[in-house]
């Protein structure tokens, strides 16, 4: 196919051989196409915009090709280097593109041909490596199964769990390289092993964190100054460096994931709507041959349609509300907000009394009773975090929000409950910590919170979910089965459990360095427990919600938990002096004194540089540089936003042009059909027939047909002339 470029007003037009295959001259064909082009809705809109700018005295154009003439050439160059397999054309056009590239390879130089081949090979290699890496990701088939049966929202929970598992694996590498390995290798006390058992140790020590665990690397008191005792390379400095590295690395990864998710949501969430026709006609993957995969894809499309219909139904109901209904709704929401505050205050009071009862000394009680008292604050926190989110879910339902807004409101209230309850517990705990090795005591409390969180998850699955499913399946008509109902996987509450568990890990990291290892094992076990719960005990929810905005909210809540952990850890290290009986910082006034000793041992220029970087004089240039960088990014964001809006307008006008051309093509076919029928009708009239029958299918082209009969010059020529 031979392409001809016709640039008119910044518009690149392609004239093919098929469009000029008649006996009409090329000049008439081009004039006809120019006339059609001037009638397109996009051309009319562009001319109106151009006249509007001329009236205002500006020369701004709304077409990106007119503003940047080189864009068409750049797009053509990118199309030449794009792999033929990824071109959005049919197989015949791909063969023609392949032949054209072979022809261009002969005409261009060897250097240009080699560069194009290398670019194509790099893209293919990148696609193959990306596909291989995606197949190496764990649990991918499980994610597809869950997505097909329960929708993308439940899948987002498991993707979030896998992300936390990767994060904790990375933290384990940092802790193992900076804290655990130097302590084991440079141990000054050779007979001190990692685990030391004594006669009074018991199994309950594993749940309380005492006994053999207290003498293990799990807690802060195990680490002490070893033979590695240089000025800038010692156990206290490595301990502090490992903790700061973990927090900074976690902050970078969580912020990056949150920003990327927010950008994706902003581009596709509020400004882009997928119609049902797209899902119906373009949503199926015709490469599927497996019946199970086809069933999963069918369920996925059905869930998407249910979600779209639910959103449309809510928008219609919201649009029909009157002013009185809005006033009543806002009054109800205000009353429910006050009820939420009352419930939060009552939860904090329960946590306070549980902490006071746990800290009280009871030496004469039985061992089991003492274990229960040790676990009293975790039990109260777990019960509060278990029941109140369900209350918040019903409150959000009464507030009459959309399903996505209900989920987000429940998430925000529940995460505030979890983080605030944890913060209140830490505040009461630090207020009453007067023991010699208080770091070990604090690490034990974080360890007990982590262990009890896993026990609660295990018991909820095997002692509540499975018996409930058995009761509903075995005795569906009983009043207890009707009261409990079928179980659904509640995404907000399960996500909150993950955020709470990870926050506990960050808070207790300094006092219990092995918490990332414990969290990694716990998340792996939780994945399989939740997988059994979803696939065996739960049924798909009747109301779906979009996971795009909620996924961003998941990571934002995780970021809030990290900020809370950093603030708590920083205030504790700054306010309390290190214990004089245990830990690597024995004999130091503060934890950060080890850095001052290292800086004092450095040469003079290095000391001056480090002191300048930590002084207020460096803050002002740093702030100015950040302002410049943020300004440039904001300018790019605005420019990209304008380009996106222009591209959306171009898509809309392209659709209008297609409708217009389809209408013109239909009229042309009707005129041609009428033209072929006209000579027969005229000859029949000349032979003396009294009347002439009209063709009812002629439609709109009838007037033009009569004009052609009256005017001989209007008769078609070439292929259109009657034989």
From TrEMBL:
Annotated region (Disordered), positions in chain: 44-77, 673-723
Membrane-spanning intervals of the chain: 163-186, 236-255, 335-355, 367-391, 411-430, 451-469, 552-571, 612-633
Biased amino acid composition, Polar residues: 678-694, 714-723
InterPro entries the UniProt entry points to: TMC, TMC_dom
Compositionally biased region (Basic residues): 45-54
Biased composition (Basic and acidic residues): 55-77
GO molecular function: mechanosensitive monoatomic ion channel activity
Keyword set includes Transmembrane: yes
Highest taxon of the lineage: Eukaryota
Pfam families: TMC
Membrane topology designation: Multi-pass membrane protein
TMC domain boundaries: 437-548
Subcellular location: Membrane
Gene Ontology annotations for the cellular component aspect, listed alphabetically: plasma membrane
Keywords: Membrane, Transmembrane, Transmembrane helix
Family classification: Belongs to the TMC family.
Name assigned to this protein: Transmembrane channel-like protein
Gene responsible for this protein: LOC120041375
């Amino acid at each position: 196919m031979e392409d001809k470029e016709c640039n008119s007003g910044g518009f690149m037009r392609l004239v093919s051989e098929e469009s000029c295959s008649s006996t009409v001259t090329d000049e008439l064909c081009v004039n006809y196409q120019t006339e059609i082009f001037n009638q397109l809705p996009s051309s009319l809109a562009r001319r109106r915009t151009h006249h509007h700018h001329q009236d205002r005295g500006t020369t701004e154009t709304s077409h990106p090709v007119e503003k940047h003439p080189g864009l068409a050439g750049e797009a053509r160059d990118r199309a030449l280097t794009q792999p033929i397999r990824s071109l959005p054309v049919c197989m015949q056009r791909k063969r023609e593109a392949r032949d054209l590239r072979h022809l261009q390879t002969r005409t261009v130089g060897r250097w240009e041909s080699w560069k194009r081949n290398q670019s194509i090979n790099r893209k293919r290699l990148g696609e193959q490596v990306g596909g291989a890496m995606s197949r190496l990701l764990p649990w991918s088939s499980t994610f597809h199964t869950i997505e097909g049966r329960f929708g993308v929202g439940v899948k987002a929970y498991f993707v979030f769990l896998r992300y936390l598992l990767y994060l904790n694996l990375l933290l384990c590498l940092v802790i193992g390289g900076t804290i655990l390995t130097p302590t084991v290798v440079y141990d000054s006390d050779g007979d001190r092993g990692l685990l030391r058992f004594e006669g009074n140790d018991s199994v309950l020590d594993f749940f309380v964190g005492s006994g053999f665990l207290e003498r293990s690397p799990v807690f802060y008191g195990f680490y002490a100054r070893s033979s590695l005792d240089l000025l800038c390379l010692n156990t206290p400095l490595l301990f502090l460096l490992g903790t700061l590295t973990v927090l900074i690395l976690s902050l970078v990864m969580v912020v990056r994931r949150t920003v990327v998710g927010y950008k994706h949501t902003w581009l596709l969430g509020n400004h882009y709507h997928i119609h049902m026709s797209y899902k119906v006609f373009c949503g199926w993957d015709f490469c599927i041959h497996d019946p199970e995969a086809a069933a999963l894809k069918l369920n996925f499309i059905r869930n998407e349609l249910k979600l779209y219909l639910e959103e449309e139904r809510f928008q219609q109901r919201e649009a029909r509300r009157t002013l009185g209904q809005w006033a009543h709704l806002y009054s109800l929401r205000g009353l429910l907000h006050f009820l939420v505050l009352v419930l939060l205050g009552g939860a904090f009071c329960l946590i306070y009394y549980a902490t006071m009862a746990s800290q009280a000394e009871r030496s004469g009680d039985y061992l089991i009773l003492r274990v229960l008292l040790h676990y009293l604050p975790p039990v109260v926190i777990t019960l509060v975090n278990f029941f109140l989110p369900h209350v918040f879910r019903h409150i959000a339902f009464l507030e009459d929000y959309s399903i996505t807004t209900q989920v987000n409101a429940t998430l925000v209230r529940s995460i505030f409950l979890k983080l605030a309850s944890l913060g209140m517990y830490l505040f009461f705990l630090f207020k009453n910590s007067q023991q010699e090795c208080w770091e070990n005591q604090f690490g034990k409390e974080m360890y007990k919170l982590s262990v009890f969180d896993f026990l609660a998850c295990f018991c909820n699955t095997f002692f509540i979910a499975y018996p409930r499913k058995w009761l509903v399946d075995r005795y569906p008509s009983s009043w207890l089965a009707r009261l409990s109902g079928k179980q659904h996987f509640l995404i907000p509450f399960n996500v909150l459990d993950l955020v709470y568990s990870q926050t506990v890990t960050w808070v207790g990291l300094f006092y219990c360095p092995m918490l990332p290892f414990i969290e990694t094992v716990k998340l792996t076990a939780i994945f399989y427990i939740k997988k059994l719960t979803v696939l065996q005990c739960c049924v798909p929810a009747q109301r779906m919600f979009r996971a795009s905005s909620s996924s961003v909210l998941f990571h934002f809540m995780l970021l809030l938990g990290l900020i809370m952990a950093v603030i708590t850890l920083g205030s504790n290290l700054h306010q309390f002096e290190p214990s004089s009986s245990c830990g690597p910082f024995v004999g130091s006034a503060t934890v950060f004194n080890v850095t001052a000793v290292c800086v004092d041992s450095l040469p003079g220029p290095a000391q001056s540089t480090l002191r300048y970087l930590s002084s207020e004089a460096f803050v002002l240039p740093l702030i100015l540089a950040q302002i410049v960088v943020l300004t440039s990014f904001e300018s790019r964001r605005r420019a990209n936003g304008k380009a996106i809006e222009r591209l959306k307008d171009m898509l809309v006008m392209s659709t209008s042009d297609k409708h217009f051309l389809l209408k013109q093509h239909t009229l042309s076919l009707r005129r041609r059909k009428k033209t072929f029928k006209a000579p027969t009708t005229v000859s029949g009239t000349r032979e003396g027939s009294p009347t002439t029958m009209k063709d009812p299918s002629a439609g709109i082209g009838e007037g033009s047909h009569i004009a052609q009969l009256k005017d001989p010059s209007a008769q078609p020529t070439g292929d259109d002339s009657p034989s």
